[in-house]
Design brief:
Strand order of the largest sheet: 1-3-4-2-7
Largest sheet: 5 strands, antiparallel
Helix content: 25-40%
Number of helices: 10
Distance between the termini: 47 Å
Length: about 400
């Protein structure tokens, strides 16, 4: 934690806030900043965001620095930045995607943010009068992106050229723009980029098909580059479109006598992890076409077995997962298999199984949680067979 000026709120005239009030409003005054550059520290983060807030006209509490505290996790490259007021924290949400020390950073609400309570404390949306252009952001765009349909493509193997990546993305439709993020000194790919399709209807189809695709030792993370990460159409419809897309590709290749691959016209990319005659395979071993929608979602790479051994830690994880997954629909049951003290093997340890009352809930959860970062890991979200879940069988898909 990095405190400034000795006292947290001394710079705000006429606002004698007691410690209890500070604690009660902290969830609404903090913002999460992820994807930090390796050399970032508390002071550079505080200085940068205070200067940026002043530049865009986001300082509504008067003169002085908007940032009062910074807590940074160097290992996981994120920080919690605490602002003076709820209104300034809401203004800071408009900075998603701003370039900090050469790197675009993510600005989000923290996990303990309570929207209903925050609404009683101050504005929950950024001011429409902020001068975002002063810091290189485009008003109305998310993270400086060119419109709401921009797609984030992460986990790219470093050996892929820009032309090969574009060829992969264009198997779903023509691109209006593509930007591969490169190291400023070496010019080498940093393993992620952004693209925009000419036809916005293609966006969610491409995201659903490519997200989770294994390429060598890498797993692609492909999703909308929006603050919420939510797809526009219902994810169930998107998956149907994806299955139809792959089926048509497979049929056309069979007719022509070519080897079946979901990456049409991409023989040069059939390097490690992409074998002829196969469809894209997600991290759980299921091909996209086999990921049949159900009311149950299985989340992998969320927790480790060691975290589940302690009863108190398990309860915290269970409550956190129930709260997070409950955002997408009514939960019927949530199961997190735990390791046995005897060391006996238990199926499903390290995974979280969530059963929703309706498939709309599971579809939203799958779309929103897949590709999210949790404790430094990339979450893999897939549908799980309802009959196996009902039997208490968490062994997988075989």
């Amino acid at each position: 934690m990095f405190p400034f000026a000795g006292t947290q709120f001394g710079g705000i005239p006429g606002m004698p806030i007691q410690a209890m009030t500070q604690q009660a409003t902290r969830h609404a005054r903090r913002v999460y900043v992820g994807g930090l550059p390796p050399m970032a520290n508390e002071q550079t983060i505080a200085t940068f965001f205070s200067q940026v807030m002043a530049a865009i006209g986001g300082n509504t509490a008067g003169p002085g620095d908007a940032v009062v505290n910074v807590y940074i996790n160097h290992e996981k490259k994120f920080a919690f930045v605490e602002m003076r007021t709820v209104e300034e924290a809401s203004n800071a949400m408009s900075l998603d995607g701003i370039i900090f020390e050469g790197v675009p950073v993510r600005v989000r609400r923290p996990s303990d943010y309570n929207p209903s309570l925050a609404a009683t404390l101050g504005p929950s949306q950024p001011s429409p009068h902020l001068n975002l252009a002063a810091v290189g952001l485009i008003p109305g765009a998310v993270g400086g992106a060119d419109g709401p349909d921009r797609v984030f493509v992460g986990g790219l193997p470093y050996y892929l050229t820009e032309a090969q990546i574009k060829e992969l993305l264009e198997s779903f439709g023509a691109l209006r723009g593509f930007d591969l993020v490169k190291d400023r000194e070496t010019g080498n790919s940093k393993g992620y980029g952004f693209c925009v399709y000419h036809d916005p209807a293609v966006t969610d189809v491409a995201c659903a098909a490519l997200n989770g695709l294994k390429m060598g030792d890498k797993t692609l993370t492909v999703r909308r580059a929006t603050a919420s990460g939510q797809p526009k159409p219902d994810q169930t419809d998107v998956l149907v479109q994806v299955q139809q897309h792959i089926a048509l590709q497979k049929l056309s290749l069979q007719v022509s006598g070519a080897s079946t691959t979901a990456l049409v016209a991409m023989p040069n990319l059939l390097s490690p992890g992409l074998m002829p005659g196969t469809l894209p395979v997600m991290g759980n071993g299921l091909s996209i076409a086999d990921d049949v929608p159900s009311r149950v979602v299985c989340l992998s790479q969320v927790v480790s077995p060691d975290e589940l051994k302690d009863d108190e830690e398990f309860e915290e994880i269970y409550d956190d997962m129930k709260e997070e997954c409950g955002k997408y629909g009514t939960i019927v049951s949530l199961v997190i298999p735990r390791p046995k003290v005897t060391g006996e093997a238990v199926h499903g340890v390290g995974k979280v199984f969530v059963e929703y009352i309706e498939i709309q809930g599971s579809a939203k959860a799958k779309a929103s949680l897949s590709g999210r970062k949790f404790a430094g890991n990339t979450v893999i979200a897939v549908y799980y067979p309802e009959d196996k879940f009902a039997r208490g069988d968490y062994s997988g898909y075989s």
